[in-house]
Amino acid sequence: MTEKQLIEATKRLIAIPSTGDNYEALKQALDFIAAMIWAQCPDVTIERFESNSRPSLLAYRGEQRPDRFRILFNGHLDVVPGKPEQYKAVVKDGKLFGRGVYDMKAACVALTDVFCQFVNEVPYSLGLQIVTDEESAGSDGTQHQIKQGVRADFVVCGECGRHPNVYEIANEAKGIAAIDVAFPGVAAHSAYPWKGENAALRASNFIQALHKHYPAPEEETHETTVSVTALAASSGAHSKLPDRATMMIVARYTAADPNFRSLEQVLTFLQRLDPDIEIVNVLDFSSPLYTNPSNSLLLRLKATAEKVEAAEFSFVRRHGTGDGRFYGDVGGEACEFGVAGDHAHADGEYITLEAFHNYIVTMRQFMEQTITSEPKPTHIKAHVA
Residue 379: what pLDDT? Predict the structure, then answer.
């Protein structure tokens, strides 16, 4: 497709309000990408997945899924809620504005087009993985597909993170622990608090103990951070102590943190702070992302981006991360490299048209080089889908 056609495709995709709770729109957005694939390479297999009403797809050549992809493109189509006008894409001052354009529909369109251009040209197994649940932890998309046997050596996630005139590829990111907990109490009249146990007070004491170990940072840090993102405790009346409080905790942790070496150690740490805490739900526990900076494909991607952008790129560690983190747990490596823009999850979300152009050129040239640099395997073991 031409660049103009890709911009128009991105506009149409932005118009689909594919928020995490709009299951029909999530399917519609995924069908949009599937239609793009079939229009350019109708012989490609599109394998469909679904978990908890969250659809995803995996595209590859041949009738059977390769046992392992050499290179896999990964993207997500779900977006955070926006204002009605944000679903009407606008081009202004060299920028494309719209909900999800930066995070990360523009990259999904670009990666889909590059995949279609090269899937039948490269001498190795190339895959395209598009999911619809990254904004809600990724367990029903990328992680679900991994549980179904999907594997890859090197994953390029078109995740946002690059700002205009910032030249970087993320090869590291902190791990994630998202846990819901509860604090039981004993109801009593608020005039006689010694007759009960205030669950709200227990939750407050827990927060203080938590932040003694992990103080709320006042500036950027590459150490573990732990945040309380929700707290609820209500008795329904001023004259009654609450007998239950609930809390959402999210940690972005480093690989060196001894409290996060495993899920069991995390839960043990929380229970040391309050032995009676209830673990209600573990929404996510994902390892940190790490790809060796000497990885040959990572270095080739960096060199290609530097040539196209005429600027030196750096490898960086991100505080937040995308779905590439799931591949580290199954022997793969991943990086985050998307289209430069700004204001993800906020008003005025945009990408620059120059960045979109450079991203497409970079990914096409990167793939062209892999045709000769990546040896053709003597055999490819197939996974029966």
Answer: 43
pLDDT given at position 375: 65
CA distance 315 to 293: 7
Mean pLDDT by groups of 10 residues along the chain of 385 residues: 97 98 97 98 97 97 96 98 97 98 98 98 97 91 96 96 93 93 97 96 97 95 95 96 97 94 96 96 89 96 98 92 87 95 96 98 98 66 49
Q: Report strand pairing: 225-232 vs 244-253.
A: antiparallel
Neighbours of 1 (CB within 10 A): 18
What pLDDT, on the 0 to 100 scale, is given for residue 233?
Answer: 96
- Alpha-carbon gap, residue 74 to 108, rounded angstroms: 8
User: Which residues neighbour 321 within 8 Å (Cβ) at sequence distance 6 or greater?
Assistant: 159, 170, 173, 174, 175, 176, 286, 288, 289, 336
Q: What is the DSSP string of 280-302?
A: EEEEEEEPPEE--TT-HHHHHHH
Q: Helices 199-213 and 263-273 sit at what angle, rounded to 10 degrees?
A: 120
Structural element, H or E, at residue 130? strand 126-131
Would you give the DSSP letter of residue 260? Answer: G
> Is 0.90 topped by the overall pTM?
no
pLDDT at res. 332: 93
Largest pairwise CA distance in the chain: 79
* 142 touches 58 (CB < 8 A): no
What is the CB neighbour count within 10 angstroms for residue 114? 22
| Nearest Cα to Cα of residue 48 among 334, 104, 38, 39 | 38
Q: How far apart are CA 171 and CA 80, in angstroms?
A: 25
CB 340 within 8 A of CB 164: yes
Q: How far apart are CA 272 and CA 150, in angstroms?
A: 38
Rg of the Cα trace of the chain?
A: 23
- Crossing angle of helices 106-118/23-40, nearest 10°? 30
Closest CA relative to residue 158, chosen from 36, 334, 369 = 334
Alpha helices in 180-295 (DSSP H): 199-213, 263-273
